[in-house]
Amino acid sequence: MPLMPLTVKQAVSRRRGQVLVGPVDLTLTPEGVTIVIGPNGSGKTSLLRMLHGIARLNAGTIDWACPLEEAREKQAFVFQTPVMMRRSVRDNLAYPLLLGGTPKQEARNKAEHWAEKVGLGNFLTRQATVLSGGERQKLAIARALIRDPEVLFLDEPCAALDGRAMREVEEILQTAAKGGTRLVMSTHNMGQARRLATEVVFMLNGKIHECAPAATFFETPSTPQAHAFLRGDIVE
Ligand SMILES: Nc1ncnc2c1ncn2[C@@H]1O[C@H](COP(=O)(O)OP(=O)(O)OP(=O)(O)O)[C@@H](O)[C@H]1O
């Protein structure tokens, strides 16, 4: 069964009584790259975590097109600071496959294939914990993509990366998107948002302030806050 569309209605996530995000109404269609932007603390991370099901849903509904258990299997999440096992790059890549019951040799082959794909082919035996920030992020993305998720959430995956590493990560993401992986990603970098987005979700004060196709949002944002944010002004 297909996973998308995702239908979100009046969804709220709270922590100790305080609203982190919501109420949110949103429909994610099966195709495209949704980029989530907004000032610090506007709820980007919380929104992604709530959609993925790792932040508590206190009110409202989040419905995938298939049963929840199946939906969980078909999505992955890349954190801003990924945690690596103190094992080799190859082992870090093979691990999610082994967990899913893939035979050892096949997992190893796939791990090598993916290491190659993200430019880590020469680092197979290197301990993942000593990788540079950019290498680590590429490994985290490969580790998420290796099980071929239908949807991949990414929370600021390029926050600490320089231009070259960012370009490499964007290439990996573009390839995944072209291959049919649905991306939902937050970023602070407006250049990156413009390069990747087909749809933009603009967050403000825990709510979706504006949601529009990328071209519409960047050319003619409909709220003064989005206008100001795109201009680089401080928006509160
Ligand atoms: N674990 C937590 N406990 C308490 N408050 C939290 C927690 N996580 C987030 N918040 C609060 O929820 C609000 C939304 O935070 P969130 O991290 O989702 O925003 P963000 O847009 O991702 O911010 P940034 O751009 O700074 O990463 C903020 O006011 C934040 O302080």
What is the CATH superfamily classification? P-loop containing nucleotide triphosphate hydrolases
How does the helix and strand content classify structurally?
Answer: alpha/beta
Mean pLDDT: 95
The Cα radius of gyration reads 18 Å
Q: Which strand-content bin applies to the residues?
A: 15-25%
Give the spatial strand order of the biggest sheet: 5-6-7-3-8-9
**Number of separate domains:** 1
**Strand count, sense and closure of the main sheet?**
6 strands, mixed
Query: Approximately how much helix is present in the residues?
Result: 25-40%
Count the DSSP helices: 9
What's the number of extended β-strand segments? Answer: 9
Small-molecule binders: adenosine-5'-triphosphate
**CATH level 3 topology:** Rossmann fold
Span between N and C termini?
41 Å
Low-confidence runs: none
- Would you state the CATH class? Alpha Beta
Pfam families: ABC_tran (PF00005)
Domain ABC transporter: 6-230
Organism: Shimia thalassica
InterPro entries: AAA+_ATPase, ABC_transporter-like_ATP-bd, ABC_transporter-like_CS, Molybdenum_import_ModC, P-loop_NTPase
How would you describe this protein?
The chain is an alpha/beta fold. The chain has a single domain, classed as Rossmann fold (3-Layer(aba) Sandwich), CATH 3.40.50. Helix content is about 40%, strand content about 25%. Strand 8 and strand 9 (about 205-215) form a beta hairpin. Bound molecules: adenosine-5'-triphosphate. Adenosine-5'-triphosphate (ATP) binds near residues 15, 20 and 45. Pfam families: ABC_tran (PF00005). One of its GO terms (molecular function) is ATP hydrolysis activity. Keywords: ATP-binding, Nucleotide-binding. It comes from Shimia thalassica.
